[in-house]
Design a protein that fits this description.
Blueprint (H helix, E strand, L loop, with lengths): L1 E5 L6 H10 L3 E5 L1 H4 L5 H14 L2 E7 L3 H10 L3 E5 L17 E5 L2 H7 L7 E3 L6 H8 L4 H7 L1 E6 L8 H6 L5 H8 L18 H15 L7 H4 L2 H10 L14 H27 L4 E4 L11 E2 L9 H7 E6 L11 H8 L4 E4 L4 H4 L7 E3 L2 H12 L2 H18 L2 H18 L1
Parallel strand pairs: 1-2, 1-3, 3-4, 4-5, 5-6, 7-8, 7-10, 8-9, 10-11, 11-12
Helix pairs in contact: 3-4, 7-14, 10-13, 12-13
């Protein structure tokens, strides 16, 4: 079997490429997007067409959905297989999602429920996984010095999303003539102490967004932002950003989805991570590994970024408690960070997600929280119950190694592909 792997430098691409190779599949790689982030859809289509016409490919594969790949494969009648590892993915609103040669795998049940009706025979659910073998090579080689260097009571590895928050950037932009006129007709509440006055986002909308964020911060396992957005708030945020995603080839109105997830969702992640770390740091020794701006944090021990392949597994293994905060656009599913922490043998304390009980037993394989009070209580408890904490970490690792590796997940994927092909 021969396939084409279209790469853009996703963190999980090397692991998946290795598994395909280990399965005895001949993998041809197209990696021009790794070196040129300005590749056009036409260039993508032309290059992939060359590969398809040169090799008897069983399918073309990519991480996340590329409409240009889908259209090319549809035209040449070659299955296009993609595995979505992010949320949100605006490209899923492309009309290309309806193509009959798509074989799309989504990792979040809520994401799957939202998009699968568009093309039910070609969209499937498949959770993420991890590369336990690779993590083992690093963890088993750790020295006492490594444990001293990377050890921590509570650690968090990840972005604070301050640099990725497009909503905050909008608040600092000068308002356009259209937006100024719109705002001047709107009753203004007094948010002057909280928000920039010279902003294309009105005080009304800023206050509305603040209220949504505060409400969502109190609720775990349920996303209430999208359904509670008003048309006015959606339109104002979309109009304020000259770079707002405007898909010319979409099957529906993407604005509500994008405002909820890409704008307010990112802002929510930034607020949640800052507040959570600051609150824990008042009572516990908290270590943060990030390349984000940490100036808003107090008493948090900030140590910069870590190398994903060589240092991150050492942090997960050496830390007493590994904290995970899933960004809310991932509504029900388990982020890659969950699988990686468990695959490294680390003790995981994560916000509750609806899909966790499908794969793990809370209190046996990992721990969860549904409020700040519960988070603080469990941090306190597990820092003083080492034997129980270690047993949970071992259980989580063993279950992950047995059931949730890339080898297992890609075998499941290929099984679904085979059954789909047989059915058609």
């Amino acid at each position: 079997m021969e396939i084409l792997f279209y790469r853009y430098n996703s963190i999980c691409e090397p692991d998946i490429l290795q598994v395909f190779t280990d399965f005895g599949i001949t993998v041809h790689v197209e990696d021009m997007e790794i070196y040129d982030k300005h590749v056009t859809p036409r260039q993508c289509a032309e290059k992939v067409t060359e590969h398809i016409l040169s090799h008897p490919l069983a399918f073309v594969f990519s991480i996340n959905f590329f409409p240009a790949l889908s259209y090319t494969c549809e035209r040449l009648k070659v299955p296009y297989v993609c595995w979505s590892v992010d949320s949100p993915v605006p490209e899923l609103f492309s009309n290309a999602l309806k193509n009959s040669y798509n074989r799309i795998f989504l990792f979040d049940q809520a994401q799957y429920a939202f998009f699968s009706p568009v093309n039910p025979d070609c969209i499937h659910y498949l959770p993420l996984a991890t590369n336990v073998k690779r993590w083992e090579q690093t963890v088993l080689a750790m020295t006492e010095k490594d444990y001293e260097t990377y050890g921590a009571d509570v650690s968090f590895v990840g972005s604070l999303y301050t640099e990725k928050c497009r909503y905050d950037a909008l608040l600092q932009m000068p308002p356009s003539t259209h937006q100024t006129a719109f705002c001047s007709q709107t009753p203004r509440q007094d948010y002057s102490a909280l928000h920039p006055l010279n902003s294309p986002i009105s005080s009304y909308t800023q206050g509305f967004v603040d209220g949504l964020i505060e409400a969502q911060l109190q609720i775990y396992g349920c996303n209430l932002i999208a359904e509670n957005l008003t048309d006015r708030v959606i339109r104002e945020i979309a109009d304020a950003d000259p770079d707002f995603y405007q898909g010319e080839d979409t099957y529906g109105d993407t604005d509500r989805y994008l405002v909820a997830h890409q704008y307010i969702g990112m802002k929510l992640a930034a607020v949640e991570r800052e507040r959570t770390l600051n609150r824990l740091a008042k009572h516990f020794h908290v270590t943060l590994y990030t390349r984000s701006d940490t100036s808003a944090l107090s008493n948090v021990h900030c140590r910069g970024g870590v190398n994903t392949l060589t240092e991150m597994p050492k942090v997960f293994q050496a830390s007493k408690i590994n904290l995970n905060m899933t960004m809310r656009p991932i509504e029900t599913g388990l982020s890659l960070r969950v699988w990686d922490i468990l695959g490294c043998g680390g003790f995981l304390l994560t916000n509750y997600q609806a899909e966790i009980p499908d794969y793990f037993e809370v209190g046996k394989d990992l721990e969860t929280y549904e409020s700040m009070e519960e988070l603080e209580a469990k941090v306190q408890y597990y820092l003083t119950h080492e034997e129980e904490r270690t047993e949970i970490a071992i259980n989580g690792y063993e279950k992950t190694a047995k059931h949730h590796t890339y080898e297992i997940r890609l075998a499941q994927m290929i099984k679904i592909l085979s059954e789909t092909a047989a059915g058609k």
